[in-house]
Amino acid sequence: MWYRILVVSDIHGAISNVRALRGVEFDLAVIAGDLADGNIDKAISILDEFIRQSSNIVWIPGNTDDPRLLDLKGIGMNIHGKLVSIDEFLFVGVGGSLHTPFNTPIEYSEEELVRVLYQGLKDYERKSSSDRLIIVSHTPPYMSGLDRIRGGTYVGSKALRKILAEYKPLLLATGHIHESWGTSSVESVLSVNPGPLASRRYSLIEVDRDSEVVRVRLYKV
Predict the structure, then answer these.
(1) Which of the two residues, 212 and 113, has the higher pLDDT score?
(2) Sign of dihedral through CA atoms 95, 197, 185, 148?
(3) What pLDDT, in 10s, does the model give residues 165-190?
(4) How far apart are CA 166 and CA 100, in angstroms?
(5) 160: number of Cβ within 10 Å
(6) Looking at the domain that runs over 2-220, which CATH code has it been given?
């Protein structure tokens, strides 16, 4: 039986594109950051719209989001620095991004990014569970092909790449770099940047519950 995970990122306030997903069938939604460019009221409206579509929502803020989203509770499951169990999956996330030239609201050093991720991963290490781990990071891993900006420079996280090599999650969901949407195998971990939902891009991940076969489909709404 296939379990369907909707992955979106970089919505940037385009709530009409969120509403356009109402006809998509999925069991759980992952929102990988940049909901509403500093507008917390619009970000909450976007989360509310996803909740109307499914009760299973996990999300992180992106680097352009209002920092108050880092601690927002009560609308879906905010997994920034947290481990959350839904169905047979475990989700851990880190929002924001590495430092950019644009001085956006939520930015970190590599050391700070790792510290946030390990807040959730330390709980994963304590669990004796067969549940599959999925990491959600707005920042993509370094030299993954999902982190290449125009001009060819790689801007992803080296520390995140090391974490993928160490923990070997079932999947990494990421975003941030609009022009580098697609899929990649990073340290033998399937990684997907669905592209910006602001440009109508999203992804459906289908996981076979018995065999752990994973299929990725990229779409435009």
Answers:
(1) 113
(2) negative
(3) 999 999 999 999 999 999 999 999 99
(4) 26
(5) 28
(6) 3.60.21.10
